[in-house]
Amino acid sequence: MTDIDKTAGPVDTPPAGAEAIKAIPVRHYGRYVSAVIAIALLVAIVYAFGQGRINWHAVPDYFFDDRILTGVGKTLLLTVLSMLIGIVGGIVLAVMRLSKNPVTSSIAWFYIWFFRGTPVLVQLFLWFNLGLVFEYINLMPFYKDYWSNFMTPLLTALLGLGLNEAAYMAEICRAGLLAVDEGQTEAAHALGMSHGKTLRRVVIPQAMRVIVPPTGNEVINMLKTTSLVAAVQYPELFRYAQDIGQNSGAPVEMYFLAAAWYLIMTSVLSVGQYYIERYYARGSSRQLPPTPWQKVRTNMLSLGRPKGGMA
Amino acid sequence: MTDKLSKSQGTPAEGTVPMVRAQDVHKSFGHVEVLKGIDLEVKPGEVFCLIGPSGSGKSTFLRCINHLEKINAGRLYVDGELVGYRQQGDKLYELRDREVAMKRRDIGMVFQRFNLFPHMTAVENVMEAPVQVKGANRAQARERAMQLLERVGLADRAGHYPSQLSGGQQQRVAIARALAMDPKLMLFDEPTSALDPELVGDVLDVMRDLAESGMTMVVVTHEMGFAREVGDSLVFMDDGVVVESGHPRDVLTNPQHERTQSFLSKVL
Fold first, then answer.
1. Which among B116, B118, B181 is the nearest to A192, CB-wise?
2. What per-residue confidence (pLDDT) applies to A287?
3. Interatomic CA distance for residues A152 and A150, integer angstroms
């Protein structure tokens, strides 16, 4: 990428004998103006919130409230379990979709079509009310009960979120598997590896490089989407925050509190994603990008030394 | 198609069993017939070169030998055994994937684009098949892999990923990877075509060394010098048929057929 500021004069050392260009760089007044406007708007917004009738002290008061912490725990549990259902289901669906059997591949297509094409909130309500269709659940020798007893809020939430996620994960996995060069499969087959071994040892590790980044997004999305299950009576972070807000008379404050907790959790997840991506990038580029810690360390070491002046 | 498959005789000739025997091999992709009846024999221990213009079917034929492509008609034998099928009486039974994989263990293949596994280091690439396919002990497989890398002159690059190696180095690792399965036959699909000219020599040296050790090799190549020096037999293919065959020196210096003459006049 060329920097616009440098177009006025080359930074490289000029060839011997040539006169170095010393020009006055172009002034970009527009940049100063836009920066000032942006800062002014920001200050105005912060001021407005500070002035508003929001009792900010309620946020730290309830930040580590037992109910909030329980809610955080349940939100995380819901995220992990729904993603597990989503990832396992997605892999199965992706393999079905890529299979040569027209029956399995069309069933997978239909599943993805339905679950991607309807809102997850609608799906949650459908699961919750499926008792109208199935009065009993009857797994002959093991279990028999009314649907409404069987379909607890947790199960509704898990199925609703997990099955929906499976449809998205299926498309992500399929794209990943298709992204691996066909020569890789051929080379593995030529070495006498079976289909299963080829998939496990050669194709999937390479597909992971394509699969991991969007999956990280899906996890973060899922964490936020769990707030919808308040609608099917499963209490999690958002639901508890709402309850506290109604009882303590600080509803808006509790929304801010919930938002802060969601931000903290998604930030932690992003860091985790960075390391997983780094792991699967091995071999794909000549040099792995440094970890944030390594960056800090090299910056510390280079402090106090002239740049590039190492013997 | 099926009547052509069932008409051949099946018992190999007297004396040594040829390593590869093709009888009237046909192969089509859709409506395009790529191989139009190939007959040839590769003797054990010989270096067999396949030359010809691109699109002549030589790479396709090579891929048929280890059943990466299915032939449509004719018979193809490796070491006296039918490729991809089992014959019982008059009937042919397609082999299961597992059985095909079993037979491929004995046939090494080197690709034009190397096809090393990019997520494994050089030594891991070489160890992979012995460990995963033959169930070899990891430590022993690593030791053997190091010997093979030494043999192709890359012991000092064992811990490098393919992306950190030059094309010529990658191709030599790929040869070591194929050799790790102790194959009785090696297939080379234009092994030097994707390389910078100055890197070709290293790969050819490794192949020459391999030929001297008595390995049976089928080589699709554009390196006429290599074919002349190292080859024992040479076949010129064009448009899906064998146009001319014989000793490389004879075919290359004194081509009988007009199509061979015109091809050689362009490449030599």
1. B181
2. 64
3. 6
The residue-averaged pLDDT of A87-107 equals 93
Q: Tell me the shortest Cα–Cα distance from A210 to chain B, in angstroms.
A: 13
> Helix, strand or coil for residue A190?
helix
Q: How far, in Å, CA of A16 to CA of A208, rounded? A: 51
Element (DSSP H or E) covering residue B77: strand B73-78
Beta bridge partners of B188: B110, B219
Provide residues of B within 8 Å CB-CB of chain A: 66, 68, 97-98, 101-105, 107-109, 111, 113, 115-121, 128-129, 132-133, 161-164, 174, 177-178, 181
Question: Using CA atoms, how far apart are residues B99 and A120, in angstroms rounded to an integer?
Answer: 46
What is the C-alpha separation between A154 and A229, in angstroms, rounded? 9
Verify whether the Cβ–Cβ distance B107 to A285 is below 8 Å: no
Query: CB under 8 Å to A84, separation ≥6 — which residues?
Result: A162
DSSP B121: -
Residue with tokens 């010997």: B147
Measured CA to CA in angstroms, residue B157 lies from A190, B165, B180, B194, B206 at distances of 24, 8, 17, 21, 16
Helices A66-98, A251-280: inter-axial angle, 10-degree rounding: 40
A278 at the B interface (CB within 8 A)? no
**Of the candidates A178, A175, A273, the residue with the CA atom closest to the CA atom of residue A222:** A273
| 3 state DSSP class of B19 | coil
- Output Rg (C-alpha) for chain B, integer angstroms: 19
Instruction: Give pLDDT, residue A266.
Output: 94
Q: What is the pLDDT of residues B93-117, one digit of tens each?
A: 999 999 999 999 999 999 999 999 9
DSSP string, A267-287: HHHHHHHHHHHHHHTTTTSSS
d(CA B58, CA B188): 11
Integer Cα distance of A198 and B222 in angstroms: 31
**Interface contact flag, A284 B163, Cβ < 8 Å:** yes
Q: Which one of A184, A191, A199 makes the best mutation probe of the B interface by having the most chain B beta carbons within 10 Å?
A: A191
Distance CA A18, CA B29 (A): 63
Residue A310: which pLDDT band, with cuts at 50, 70 and 90?
very low
The minimum CA-CA distance between B134 and chain A, rounded to whole Å, is: 9
Rounded to the nearest angstrom, the minimum Cα separation between B126 and chain A is: 10
CA distance B114 to B162: 10
* Average of per-residue pLDDT across B190-218: 94
With CB atoms and an 8 Å threshold, state whether A190 touches B164. no
Q: Helix, strand, coil % (nearest 5) of chain A? A: 75, 5, 25
8 Å CB contact of B104 and A190:
yes
Average of pLDDT values for A189-209? 92
- Is the Cβ–Cβ distance between A187 and B115 less than 8 Å? yes
Tell which wins on pLDDT, B134 or A310.
Answer: B134
